Amino acid sequence: MAVESIPRRTVVDLLEARLRGDILSGTHEPGSLLPPERELAAGYGVTRTTLKHALTRLEQAGLLSTRHGIGTRILDYLRVGGADLLPMLAAQDPTWLREVFEVRRQIGTLIAGRAADRRTERQARRLEHLLRQVADGPDADAVQLADVEVHRELARATGNRVYLLLTNTLFNAYLPVRASLRAPFEDAARATDRLAPVVRAVVDRDGGEARRAAETYLAGTEKIMLGSLSSSRGRPTADGPR
Question: pTM of the entire structure?
Answer without folding.
Answer: 0.76
